[in-house]
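fyi for ur records
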Amino acid sequence: MPRLGAGRQANEQEPPPGNFDQGSESMGKNKFYEFLHASKKRARFFAYFLMAVLAGNLDALVDFFLHPEIAYFDQEHFVVGSIMCLLTIILCTLLESNIQEESFGSHSMSPGMGPYVWFIAAFWAIIVCFSLGWNIVRQKQEVLQVALNEARTIYQKDLVYYRWATENDGVFVPISPKTQPNPYLQHVPEYEATTSLGKSLTLVNPEYMIRQVYEMQTPLSGIHGHITSLDPIRSENAADSWETDALDQFEEGVKEVSSIEDINGEPYLRLMRPLVTEVGCLKCHAAQGYDVDDIRGGISVSVPMSLLFSIYRKDVFMFSLAHAILLGLGLVGIFLGSCRIRQSMLEREQAEAKTRSIIDNMLDGLVTMDQSGNIETLNSAALKMFGYQPAEIVGYNLDRLIEFPESADWIAGKQHDFHFDMKKAMGSQKELTGKRKDGSTFPVQISFSEMVHGMSHLLIITVRDITQEKIRKEEALRTGQLAAIGELAAGVAHEINNPINGIINYAQILMDDHEEKDEADSVHKDIMGRIIKEGERISTIVKNLLSFARQRDEIVERIKLSDIIQDSLSLLMHQLHKDGVQVTVNVPEELPLLKGNPQQLQQVFVNLLTNANYALNEKYPGQNPEKRIEIASAVVRQDGRDFIRTTVSDWGSGISQDVIDHIFDTLFTTKPPGEGTGLGLNISKGLIRDHNGYLSLASTPGEPTVATVDLPVSETPADNGDDE
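which gave:
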């Protein structure tokens, strides 16, 4: 369920659909991708082909320059090249797929994913770099371990030779140019010997034998071996600086020393272990003061690292290449995924914006609540209806807006039953009372619905302001009543009009007869005058009823408002003068002309002046200088057109607001029985409305009462001239 916009606008403003920053899209794309996207299809596929060929031959090309001894079409090159070519094809396929999707879809991207994409990409790059570093370190450790194991194996072999020779007190070998008698063994009995055939032999001790083995081994494998001591008998066996340091460590209890060192400019792994004095060693070394189990020196082995380091560098390159491809594929995947996510976000935002626009443009209010009855969101119609801002109402209980029956018990006191009560109201419509922010109330019709999403329940209330609907119903009822009254009035008028005219005429005949006979019977004369007066009053009432009941006269002509005012005053001037009312008229002659029915407009102003005179007589029964009426007219601009506004003001007692609210209602009057019909202002408002004008009344008890008549100016320029 998309949020309804207005309910969350207190904290955030949502952008209009489609109005996204196009610059954010380019931030998420690299230059190469933009180049491919802008290229033609054939050019893109040719670029893909070149990328696949280059990736497939990259390993072979590297070996071609770094290791020319390796054949270009080596089996390893085929395997590695095939894998890299396959990965490149996958990458190109993903790129082309995304390009095709964007070519047929929307190119707008939501800017909201940008920072997260860069964060994810950076995190992925850190992981790949960490993996590369860990693999490089591990590979170097493995290379060093291989060399160390090889050195230990050589050491163990040499030690076995040494012990074998020691256990056998050395060996006798023929004297040759390479094997001369050892001058350091002359003190040993049987230093030399001769075979039965007369061949001369010399004693070779273990150290001498090992040294000769090393001399034969080094040219073949490059491995160096050396038996040394801090106190050598033979000066050539003296320890170098590295061996001296290792021998010193042996004296401290260290069992093995190894490190990478340069020998003649080449890297070697040097390993050295202590050489412990055995019984057989005392023949030569007892004179030096050694005893059994004393450390008298050490055996060092130096393994060349050039080949291993070459393999290590190639492995590092392959690791780097593989991780670079992995990094590239990951970044492409993140980019494509972010494009998909942003596209989905855009589609969702557009759908939400469309839904929000529909909801916010609804005439009915829409309110959503949680299961406790607390308001979560409101649409624009609901906010306008109740007069709140989102921050002022979101989070409050629904009874802040709707006056429920027993609201305090149903909503506040029975929170645990609220959802149950809403369930019972689902699918039904109820007429209740809405409460605005300013404290006013109005009738509303509400309906309940529910949306369930997982474990959450969203309650939705549709609120309709039915004030106008009720007014229309009341007007329809009043119209029916008026139609009935009109029919009754027409019938009564026709039935009464002729008899009352007869009564008036007969009374006038009697009056005239008395005057001709010059009879001075004042009593009879007064009675007949009253009969004529009351008959004329009845005739006026009948006339008003007929005017109310019949169709309006459609005769329209050009009118000068000043003439209407003067004609109305002339009809009432005698009565106004008699009651002591001062009338001030400020109606300029140069006012524009009106279009209308002069009789109807005169009827309106006569009615307003009559009511003003009645109010003044109510406040001042006798003569009083405060009994005054002011009539003023001027041109005003409203609703894009010109109106002549005429005000009729009296200084009577004023009218309360509850009377003002019903002053234009049919048959409503504040006059005593026999003095008012309740039709005058209703008829006047209808006549002004027929002229496309407005009639209003403003008053406060104790203040002047102002009746305002707004009549539209004739729109035809010729109508502003004098009548022909």
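The mean pLDDT is 75. thats all i got for now
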